[in-house]
Amino acid sequence: MKHLLSAADLDAATATEILDIAASMAAVSGREIKKLPTLRGRTVVNLFYEDSTRTRISFEAAAKRLSADVINFSAKGSSVAKGESLKDTAWTLQAMGADAVVIRHPASGAPHRLANWVEGSVLNAGDGTHEHPTQALLDAYTIRSRMGKIDGLQVAIVGDVLHSRVARSNVLLLTTLGAKVTLVGPPTLVPSELGEYSYDLDAVLPEADVVMMLRVQRERMTDSYFPSAREYSRRYGLDGARVRRMPDHAIVMHPGPMNRGMEITPEVADSPRSTIVEQVTNGVSVRMACLYLLLGGKHS
Amino acid sequence: MAYAKTVLSNGDVQRVVDRIAHQILEKTQGAQDVVLLGIATRGVPLAQRLADRILAFEGRSIPVGTLDITLYRDDLRQQSMRAVGRTEEPPGGIDGRRVVLVDDVLFSGRTIRAALDAISDLGRPAVVQLAVLVDRGHRQLPIRADYVGKNIPTALSEKVRVKLAEIDGVDEVQLEGAPA
């Protein structure tokens, strides 16, 4: 595999291999010396055109634990602010000898374009409302380590599906791995072409093994998709009463950052059922596995 | 014409393991402070067998761990991507202990170099020793084994194939190749 652009590029065998490698990487994160020499001398560029905390830090930690050199590039305060195009930036990175470029971009499809312009591997760290494959992988990893399996599970993805690259990648990956995904949210925010969907959260909860809450992405909303924040959180917010309607073994996930009180109440977010902190920890292991997969061997 | 010659057959492998277990006991004053680290894949069952034999001979239970050295290899870029196995530290760790690395075949020495790097990331043993079932020569690094089951002179073009009951269903060491 040369690039990781979409969760659709991963078949069940490759995805499972990434999760297995991630499990080995997680063992390294528990050691006193959290470092492997695997990618010594390789250069990984974090190219971030959008604000991000956890994804950028997570990729940086992952690359550093594998001994790669990391260059962080954020659009703010760079030549991009002076009007440089993505293509020219790509050539600059190429000239610097980047072995891998981790890109986050507000435009859907930007990583695909970049992959044609640079020789190194391209990892999609979120492009517009399109995809975020490493988030889907870390979610799959988290589900597998909590539930012991993914195949056959009922997963509800709840909230602003329309603007969510996390939801898109998760639908693709979790379906590949054998889970049954139901998208839940107000009709204005749930596109019907992605798969099974429902507008009634309370009807879906009793059947769900995994409930994945999505952030309401106010920054991407150009229209009014629901009457008020209060109405949204009353119909689609996850509170203690709704959690009690879920099966006892079911878990609650959120990719972060959370709007506490909007899509999830603090009571739920901080409960033992919530995997939100684990997801962040697992993100580093999964991204180490992805970097190893793309950079660790020779491409034929 | 290709050929495959059996160098060690079923009973031989276990006898060789028994002898290495005795040698470890002899060289380490009854295996005091010893921990065994099997290198994946076939070093792992060998390490377990050595521990079983030492327990049978001396009544001393030796901690056993496994070491996967894939992420420490120096030829990662030359080969296609390798699957990563699991590293499990032996109970009680390796700090200050006498670590005996266990592998099936000693060849170029590069696996052992990688294993030594991996060990230094896990802790600081007092001593590191090496036990191998087969030494086939052709070293590319200044590395030698402390315990050798069998020295097999080989040509570079030949292959040494080790089979162990735990993984392959049978104990056997074969030398395979095509005559020049």
TrEMBL record, chain A:
**Recorded GO MF terms:** amino acid binding; aspartate carbamoyltransferase activity
Q: Which residues bind carbamoyl phosphate?
A: 54-55, 104, 132, 135, 256-257
* Catalyzed reactions: carbamoyl phosphate + L-aspartate = N-carbamoyl-L-aspartate + phosphate + H(+)
| Gene Ontology CC terms, in alphabetical order | cytosol
Q: Does the keyword Nuclease apply?
A: no
* EC class: transferase
Q: Which residues bind L-aspartate?
A: 82, 165, 215
Q: Which Pfam families match?
A: OTCace, OTCace_N
Per the UniProt entry, what are the Gene Ontology biological process annotations, in alphabetical order? Answer: 'de novo' pyrimidine nucleobase biosynthetic process; 'de novo' UMP biosynthetic process; amino acid metabolic process
Where would I find the Aspartate/ornithine carbamoyltransferase Asp/Orn-binding domain in this sequence?
Answer: 151-294
Pathway(s) it belongs to: Pyrimidine metabolism; UMP biosynthesis via de novo pathway; (S)-dihydroorotate from bicarbonate: step 2/3
At the top level of its lineage, which domain of life is listed? Bacteria
Q: Which NCBIfam families match?
A: asp_carb_tr, PRK00856.1
**Function as written in the Swiss-Prot or TrEMBL entry:** Catalyzes the condensation of carbamoyl phosphate and aspartate to form carbamoyl aspartate and inorganic phosphate, the committed step in the de novo pyrimidine nucleotide biosynthesis pathway.
Protein name per Swiss-Prot or TrEMBL: Aspartate carbamoyltransferase
UniProtKB/TrEMBL annotation, chain B:
Q: In this protein, which residues make up the domain named Phosphoribosyltransferase?
A: 7-153
Q: Which UniProt keywords apply?
A: Glycosyltransferase, Transcription, Transcription regulation, Transferase
The regions listed as transmembrane in this protein's record are: none
Keyword Glycosyltransferase in record = yes
Q: Name one Pfam family in it.
A: Pribosyltran
**Belongs to which family?**
Belongs to the purine/pyrimidine phosphoribosyltransferase family. PyrR subfamily.
User: Any idea what job this protein has?
Assistant: Regulates the transcription of the pyrimidine nucleotide (pyr) operon in response to exogenous pyrimidines. Also displays a weak uracil phosphoribosyltransferase activity which is not physiologically significant.
Task: Provide the protein name.
Answer: Bifunctional protein PyrR
- Kindly list the organism's lineage: Bacteria, Bacillati, Actinomycetota, Actinomycetes, Micromonosporales
